[in-house]
Amino acid sequence: MYGRLKGRRLPFLNKAPEEGLKVSALCGGRNELYLEGSICGIPCLMLVDTGANVTLVRTDLAQKLKENFIYTAPNISLKTATGEKAEIRGKLDAAIECGCRKFQYKIYVANITDPCILGLDFLQKFNFTVDLEKNEIRTGGEEIPLFSASAEHSKLCSVLAKEKTIIPARSECLIQGVPEVSGKFRYAVTDFPSQVSQKGVLVAATLVDLKREAIPIRVLNLDNKPKNVDKGAIIATCEPVVDIVARPQEFSESLRLPLISENLEGLNEEQRTAQ
Question: Which Gene Ontology biological process is one annotated for this entry (predicted)?
Answer without folding.
Answer: proteolysis
